[in-house]
Amino acid sequence: MVTNLPAEAKAKWIKVMEAKTPEEKLRALEEFLSAVPRHKGTEKLIGRVRRQMAILRREIEEKRKRRAGKGPKFFVEKEGAAQIIILGFTNSGKSQLLRALTNAKPQVSPIPYTTRLPIVGMMLFKDIKFQLVEAPALFEGAAKGAGWGLKTLGLVRNADAILIVLDGVNNPLGQLKTILKELEEARITIGKPKGKVEVTRKSAGGIQVVVFGKIVDGTVRDVRKILKDYKIHHALVKIYGEVTLDEIEISIFGGIMYKPAIVLINKADMLTKEKIEYIVSKIQEIIGDHVRVFPISALKGVNVETLGEALFNTLELIRVYTKQPGVDEPSPEPLVLRKGAMVLDVAERIHSRLSKNFRYAKIWGPSAKYPGERVGGNHVVMDGDIVEIHAKA
User: Fold this and answer.
1) SS3 (DSSP) at 252
2) Which end of the chain is more exposed for a tag (fewer CB within 10 A), N or C?
C-alpha cells in the first residue's frame, strides 16, 4: 500500500472516522498524525491531514464566534435534490445568474466583493429542485487561508457540484486557471477520475463489496482485508470504473474530492461567435471535453434555461418514485439518487428499518423486464422507476 501505515496509526484513524464533532475530529487527527511515520510514502497523506486540521480549526473558531454573537453563519444546510455552488471571481456575474435561475434577490453591483456571505436560491427543474448557493468570490491565495478563501472552499467541499462562472470579457482563461489551482490546493478536482470508491460504514451486516467496474490489481477478498486492517468490519463498498487497491485504501482517508462541474462563459452577448469558439476550445484544452462548457448571458437570460437539464445529467441523477403495497398510485415527489443506485439504497432512503428488514421489491419502469417485476436488493434502478418495497413484519 502507498502509505504503509503501522497498526497503531490505522487504529487511530478509526477514531477520526468515529468523531462526531469538529473538536473531537481535530483531537483525533492530532493523535493520528503523531502515529504516522515520516517517509516519502506518507508525505501526501500528512499534507492532507494538516489541511484538514487547518479547516477544522477555522470551523471551530467560526462556531465560537457565532456562539458569542460575533460572526455570521457561513455553512449552508443542504436542501432539494442537490446543492450547487456558484463559484467565480468578483464581478463575474454570479449574483446575476442566481437572480436569473431562482427566486433569490442578491445585490447586483459593479463594486468588487459585494457578496460577503453565501446567498441561497431554489431552482425548479421538472419535479425536483436544485439548491443554488452563490459563494463569495474566489481569488488567488484562497486555499492558503487568505481572506475568506477557506470558507468559500469549505462551501465547495460540502456541495454536490459546481457552476464555475467566468467573466467572458475579462481574461476568462486566466480566471479558470486560478480557480482550478485553488481547488487543486484544497484537494478538490473537477476532472472525472477513471474510477470511484464509496465506503459507507454500517452497524451490522459485514463487509459488502459491489463492483460496477473493475479492481485492477486485486479481488473483493483484498478489499475486505484492507477494511479489516482498519478495524472496519461492517461497511458497504461501491466501486465504479477502474480502481486500484491503493485507491481503495486512500478512499478511507478521503483522498482527492471529485466535484462534477459545468463551466459558464458569462457575458457571451458581448462576444463574437469566433471569440466564444476560441475561448471554448482553449477551456477544453485545459480541462478536457468531459466538463461541459456553456456560453451564457446571465443579464439577458441567454442559454440559462438549459442549465437544469445540464446539472441533472452532470450529477448523473435519477428520479425514483415509491409506491406502497396495495396502493395504485406512486408518490408524486420522487427520491433523487445517483446512477448506479440499488433497490437497497431506495429502502435505506425511505427508512433504515426497511433496509434492515428488506425481503424483496417490485419494479415498474425502465429497469423492469416487465411491469411489477420482483427483484432483490442489489437490483440497479433507473430514472423514472416506480419501486414497491416489501419488508419483514
Assistant:
1) helix
2) C
